[in-house]
Design goal:
By secondary structure, the chain is of the alpha/beta class. It is built from 10 helices and 10 strands. Strand 5 and strand 6 (140-141) form a beta hairpin. InterPro entries: DUF72 (IPR002763), UPF0759_sf (IPR036520).
Length: 271
């Protein structure tokens, strides 16, 4: 058994006008941006799938433009998560998952199901949602993670529910959203959202060092001691876990550079 899972860091998407000068080479055609970005970082979180529907040819194209070993995280469509009764999301979920996401094959990473900041924790309702999550789509194994944004989720019952279904909770480094570092699944997903456009690497070098150390702890099967948990009394099984880290929102201008700097540290530590 490997002693550590794989750590991947990236940003949200690959099309953002300020990146034309802050990240991409001068005069690089926009049609070549995905090819370039996917060779600078090992993963990208796709936000567009939350707002819009895509068809299989698009996923085939994305897969063809990224190198071997690259992984896309897809944000689940909003019509699945933005509803009063989550247990009624089955049809919308199947429509999204059946739209061609399996065409990514080995390049399909976690599916991120993001909930509004107004959505409160209702144990029965949320369990009904977790029961809907399929293990495979068209023969491709699916990995699911959930991002919750209401403080009512910061309770041991929520962490226990996720452990029951082996679904990780997103750790959000955010100014106002709850931070939940409980390890409840077979991988870890973190979204770093307190960067700054004034910092060349999105996060200060010292903060990057700290986040790399946390990612390495997660990858080795532990839980960072300095992050808050919903159920701190619960022991976490120690086993290698893959770790996905995304630089999102605040500091977006330099988010790709933050991900590159993060991976440089990870790779240097591995040598």
């Amino acid at each position: 058994m490997a002693k550590s899972g794989t750590i991947r860091a990236g940003m949200g998407g690959w099309t953002f006008e300020p990146w034309d000068t802050s990240f991409y080479p001068e005069k690089l055609p926009k049609a070549k941006q995905l090819q370039y970005a996917s060779r600078q970082v090992p993963t990208i979180e796709v936000n567009g799938t939350y707002y819009s529907s895509f068809k299989e040819p698009t996923f085939v194209k994305w897969a063809s433009e990224a190198p071997d070993g690259f992984v896309y995280s897809l944000k689940g469509n909003r019509f699945v998560t933005n509803r009063r009764v989550l247990g009624e999301a089955g049809e919308s979920m199947m429509r999204f998952l059946g739209s061609g996401v399996a065409a990514l094959g080995e390049k399909l990473g976690p599916i991120l199901w993001q909930f509004a900041h107004t959505k409160k924790f209702d144990p029965d309702d949320f369990e009904a949602f977790l029961k809907l999550l399929p293990e495979k789509q068209d023969g491709v194994v699916l990995r699911h993670t959930v991002e919750v944004r209401h403080p009512s989720f910061v309770v041991p019952e929520f962490a226990a529910l996720l452990r029951k279904y082996n679904v990780p909770v997103v750790y959000a480094d955010h100014a106002t959203y709850p931070a939940i570092a409980d390890v409840t699944g077979d991988f870890v997903y973190a979204r770093l959202q307190t960067g700054s456009d004034d910092i060349a690497t999105c996060y200060e070098p010292k903060a990057l060092d700290e986040w790399v150390a946390r990612a390495e702890t997660w990858a080795q099967g532990g839980v960072p001691a300095d992050l808050p948990r919903a159920d701190p009394a619960q022991d976490t099984p120690v086993k290698p876990r893959d770790v996905f880290v995304y630089f999102i929102t605040s500091g977006k201008v330099n988010a790709p550079n933050g991900a590159v700097a993060f991976m440089e540290r990870v790779n240097a530590n591995a040598r």
